[in-house]
Recover the amino acids of this structure.
């Protein structure tokens, strides 16, 4: 069930990137796609009825969730933040140059 | 020694960012010094790999199952030498080319970050580490694409950034799938698990994700929309780095490593790769024929030449792989040279449209003659390096009984020659405009890299001679031929 929601989230982001004409909506779409994959990574490391992965001494019956997946999500969130920041800055610059966020009107490059 | 490849450029770039505004000449000196040391280190690494086969470094002293491993084998060292030597030549060229730019320090900062990211991708021994370094180099390259600060540059950079980050997300998805199956991220453990338990059930999905994700970075044809924009709007040395190193390392190196050493190939995957390669050859060269902007024309040719490399990889035979690796090396040399020529012409005349140029061979003798060498080389005229690698690839097609592929590859070569005759005719020969009567040849810092690359174009055919071939190309080829057993063959890399 959670995996299906993950796929739905991914498709929402993909739709925004592919079909939307507004720069900001495209940026949001990229971010949403990133979140879908982060969620998938977290789910891949998740176990039902388990604890936080902190060793407190007694290892008997200790069933932690996978900490590596969470560490990967942290790194992916950071790089995602950098990309979103850069994309937003580029959108602002494009708005300054063209006076619009509409990608139909931003088309000096062709052929 | 391995971490130096990442630490040196990062420290140099941070020092440039901190001091670039106060000291005028420091940013050039620092970046040239770090590039020179990287180049020498990479040659040293090549020497070590020839004698010892592999260099392994465990970050922080933690061994494989817990720690992060960096390693350098024959395939890595091939790309390492290519990236670092090219970076040195391009930084040297940049000294004069970026002379008048207001944002020199930032330019060198992002250039060195890009080199650090590429070195990190080449040396990392696990998927996620490679992904993080890939993001580092991609972000630096998005910024460099917008460096001209015109509306076109921002547009190209936005397009590149969106396509690049969507493809990175697909790659992260593929990494997550692999991790959920094998519970490990290191190449060695994934290859081991694949060998022991066979391919996972979602193998097809994995291949689709990897093909699309890395296809954007390799610049294969259905995913090529950003290429002409980004390549033509970046400063010329950066265009040369995009075409010569970024697409090679982020795309082709990762595809080779994953398909041959980590997750394994099937005939269907190889066929898909070869078909996409042939499609790229034909579409790229056809679009180039209709193009009148110097740098856009070169970027379409970059797509088409990368098609040859992917065709050679897709054949999967030793001869095809040798041809692909050799063509990769040659393409780096002659396409970088052509981008540098375009930069030199643009710097002298301020124009890029072929209709506005002409007769420059008399005014820019070094640029004219080196671009003649590069044009003959990219079109595959016999004594030059491009001929040998294209010949190997076409020969491999015929040996594999793929006659259609051979025909298309030969056709692509002829069309390439036609479109480079157009460049020679409209830029360097013909009638010189009065407006260009007073232009001068570029300064020494720009001509020396061009001359070095032109000499490489002429003499690199000797790499195929017996004896020399086993040292550089052969080392990389061996790694690919080991297949998924490669990591268990490397002594010292724990399984």
């Amino acid at each position: 069930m959670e995996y299906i929601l993950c796929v739905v989230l991914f498709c929402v982001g993909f739709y925004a990137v592919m079909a939307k004409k507004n720069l900001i909506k495209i940026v949001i779409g990229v971010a949403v796609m990133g979140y879908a994959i982060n969620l998938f990574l977290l789910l891949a490391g998740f176990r039902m009825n388990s604890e936080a992965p902190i060793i407190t001494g007694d290892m008997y019956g200790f069933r932690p969730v996978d900490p590596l997946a969470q560490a990967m999500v942290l790194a992916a969130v950071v790089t995602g933040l950098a990309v979103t920041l850069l994309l937003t800055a580029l959108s602002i610059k494009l708005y300054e140059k063209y006076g619009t966020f509409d990608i139909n009107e931003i088309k000096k490059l062709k052929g | 020694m391995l971490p130096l490849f990442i630490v040196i450029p990062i420290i140099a770039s941070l020092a440039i960012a901190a001091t670039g505004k106060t000291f005028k000449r420091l940013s050039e000196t620092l970046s040239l010094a770090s590039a020179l040391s990287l180049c020498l280190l990479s040659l040293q690494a090549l020497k070590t790999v020839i004698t010892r086969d592999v260099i392994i470094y465990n970050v922080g002293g933690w061994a494989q199952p817990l720690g992060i491993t960096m390693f350098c084998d024959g395939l890595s060292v091939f790309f390492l030498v290519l990236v670092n030597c090219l970076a040195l030549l391009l930084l040297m060229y940049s000294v004069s080319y970026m002379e008048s730019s207001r944002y020199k320090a930032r330019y060198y900062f992002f250039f060195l970050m890009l080199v650090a990211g590429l070195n990190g991708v080449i040396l990392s021994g696990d998927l996620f580490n490679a992904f993080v370094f890939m993001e580092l180099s991609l972000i630096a390259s998005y910024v460099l694409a917008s460096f001209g600060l015109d509306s076109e540059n921002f547009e190209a950079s936005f397009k590149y950034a969106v396509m690049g980050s969507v493809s990175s997300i697909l790659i992260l998805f593929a990494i997550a799938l692999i991790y959920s199956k094998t519970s490990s991220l290191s190449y060695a453990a994934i290859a081991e698990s694949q060998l022991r338990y066979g391919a996972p059930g979602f193998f097809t999905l994995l291949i689709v994700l990897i093909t699309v994700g890395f296809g954007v970075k390799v610049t294969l044809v259905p995913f090529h929309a950003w290429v002409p924009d980004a390549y033509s709007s970046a400063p010329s040395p950066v265009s040369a780095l995009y075409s010569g190193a970024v697409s090679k390392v982020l795309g082709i190196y990762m595809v080779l490593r994953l398909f041959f050493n980590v997750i394994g190939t099937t005939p269907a995957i190889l066929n898909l790769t070869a078909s996409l390669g042939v499609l790229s050859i034909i579409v790229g060269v056809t679009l180039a024929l209709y193009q009148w902007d110097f740098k856009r024309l070169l970027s379409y040719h970059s797509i088409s030449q990368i098609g040859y490399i992917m065709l050679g990889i897709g054949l999967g035979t030793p001869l095809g792989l040798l041809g692909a690796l050799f063509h990769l090396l040659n393409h780096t040399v002659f396409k970088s040279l052509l981008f540098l020529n375009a930069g030199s012409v643009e710097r002298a005349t301020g124009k890029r449209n072929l209709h506005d140029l002409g007769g420059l061979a008399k005014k820019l003798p070094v640029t004219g003659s080196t671009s003649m060498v590069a044009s003959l080389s990219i079109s595959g005229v016999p004594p030059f390096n491009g001929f040998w690698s294209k010949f190997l690839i076409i020969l491999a097609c015929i040996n594999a009984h793929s006659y259609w592929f051979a025909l298309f590859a030969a056709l692509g070569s002829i069309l390439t020659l036609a479109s480079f005759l157009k460049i020679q005719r409209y830029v360097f020969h013909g009638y010189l405009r009065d407006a260009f009567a007073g232009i001068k040849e570029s300064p020494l810092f720009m001509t020396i890299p061009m001359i070095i690359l032109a000499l490489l174009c002429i003499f690199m055919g000797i790499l195929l001679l017996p004896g020399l071939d086993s040292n550089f190309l052969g080392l990389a080829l061996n790694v690919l031929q080991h297949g998924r057993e490669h990591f268990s063959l490397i002594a010292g890399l724990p399984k």
